[in-house]
């Protein structure tokens, strides 16, 4: 029988084991594993276990400091800076979520600028953590160059994800998570690992020609969603995530995918809002009225419904991995 099924706990343990064997502190490894396994369970394979080989390689080479402890720097009454110290983004993002959760109930709104950072994975993962604490969360992140400015031919900006989450009283948070490229770059990396072609329209090659070859796509540039309007949004996120946090621009950052060069030093801007005070206490009821109006129309669904269904299935049945994925995971976690 082809493939292998692992429980979430087993997959988590193997990811931790692999990272620890590649020069990562166990506590940091556990936070990385939390995020990778959660993404895999949600069906977001481009941000799941497919990232582990590059993470291990970068920790082993020192491009990512697996032993880094993020540090908080107060910036204003309701603003803070979190120095990821060239480590994995996940410990820094977890610290930002914790500090924002402490600030926001009294300030109403609070913001965290994360810098000296790395790939933050599935952006919705972090805002969902805020929403589970009763807060509205908004995240902007910049990534290494992958998208050209509109009318240009050379990659300047990253795929620059945006994520948004709102708490619901009787349901899981609603999470909206999108890359500003037509698809996340991680999906192309996953296609490359699996030896699969990609659909035309996702990317162009180094010569600017449409391609279905993931290798050529990774050497070329991604196409923005919404064409010129999408390119403007990419610029907006670059300013919020890089300029406002004092981080590297996409064209200054090294790759998330290989172990060569200096740390990428990208940024993330995480915003938290206390919905009750801001809405005069009307937030929960008004949100449910809106969502009910959406679902009242036949054929509609809320953002994230498919993801939550996949998550529930994974919790019950485990993660279905390809033979290649399983062998790679075992190899990385094995004793050297």
From TrEMBL:
Quote the InterPro entries the UniProt record gives.
Answer: Mal/L-sulf/L-lact_DH-like_ah, Mal/L-sulf/L-lact_DH-like_NADP, Mal/L-sulfo/L-lacto_DH-like_sf, Malate/L-lactate_DH-like
Which terms are listed as keywords in the entry?
Oxidoreductase
Q: Name one GO molecular function term.
A: oxidoreductase activity
Q: Which Pfam families match?
A: Ldh_2 (PF02615)
The entry's family comment says: Belongs to the LDH2/MDH2 oxidoreductase family.
Protein known as: Sulfolactate dehydrogenase
Q: What is the lineage of its organism?
A: Bacteria, Pseudomonadati, Thermodesulfobacteriota, Desulfarculia, Desulfarculales
């Amino acid at each position: 029988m082809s493939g292998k099924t692992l429980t979430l706990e087993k997959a988590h343990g193997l990811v931790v084991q692999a990272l620890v064997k590649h020069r990562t502190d166990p506590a940091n490894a556990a936070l990385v594993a939390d995020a990778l396994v959660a993404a895999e369970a949600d069906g977001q394979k481009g941000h799941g276990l497919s990232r582990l080989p590059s993470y291990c390689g970068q920790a082993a080479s020192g491009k990512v400091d697996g032993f880094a402890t993020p540090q908080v720097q107060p910036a204003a009454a309701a603003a803070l800076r979190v120095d990821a110290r060239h480590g994995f983004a996940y410990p820094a993002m977890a610290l930002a979520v914790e500090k924002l959760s402490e600030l926001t109930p009294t300030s109403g709104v609070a913001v965290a600028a994360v810098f000296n950072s790395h790939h933050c994975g599935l952006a919705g993962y972090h805002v969902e953590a805020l929403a589970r604490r009763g807060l509205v969360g908004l995240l902007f992140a910049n990534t290494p160059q992958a998208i050209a400015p509109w009318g240009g031919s050379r990659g300047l900006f990253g795929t620059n994800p945006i994520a948004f989450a709102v708490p619901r009283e009787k349901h899981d948070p609603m999470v909206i998570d999108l890359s500003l490229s037509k698809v996340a770059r991680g999906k192309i990396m996953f296609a490359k690992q699996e030896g699969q072609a990609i659909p035309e329209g996702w990317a162009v090659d180094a010569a600017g020609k449409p391609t279905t070859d993931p290798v050529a796509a990774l050497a070329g540039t991604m196409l923005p969603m919404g064409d010129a309007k999408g390119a403007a949004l990419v610029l907006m996120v670059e300013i919020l995530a890089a300029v406002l946090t004092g981080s590297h621009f996409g064209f200054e950052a090294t790759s998330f995918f290989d172990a060569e060069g200096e740390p990428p030093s990208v940024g993330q801007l995480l915003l938290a809002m206390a919905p009750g005070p801001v809405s005069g206490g009307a937030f929960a009821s008004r949100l449910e009225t809106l969502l009910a109006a959406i679902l009242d129309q036949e054929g509609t669904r809320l953002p994230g419904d498919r993801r939550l269904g996949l998550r529930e299935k994974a919790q019950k049945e485990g993660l279905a991995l390809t033979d290649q994925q399983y062998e790679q995971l075992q190899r990385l976690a094995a004793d050297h």
